[in-house]
Amino acid sequence: MAGVNDYVEEVQRLFKAQKMYVDIDLSGNTMPKKIRTGQLQQYNFIFVVGAQEKESRSVNIRNRDDPETQAKGELVPLEEAIGKLKALKKERRLINAI
Prior knowledge:
Blueprint: H1 5-17, H2 31-40, E1 45-48, H3 51-56, E2 58-63, E3 76-77, H4 78-91
Antiparallel strand pairs: 1-2, 2-3
């Protein structure tokens, strides 16, 4: 997955520019292992980014509190994902569904 690291870092820069905390895993672990590590660390949202997401400039969002999003779902365009998280941050809702 080293081929998508540049896109992962770009996604990180875009979210940090919006004053959002972003942690990335560029380790040599497999994708399922990286996802499981994120789940164990209790991140609210895990953005899964691979070759397919890089090609379409999108992300796959997994919400910690929504079991339906734990499997590979639909791809969300990157700009739409940023907009949804900015709205969630602004609204300060207790339920963090986007």
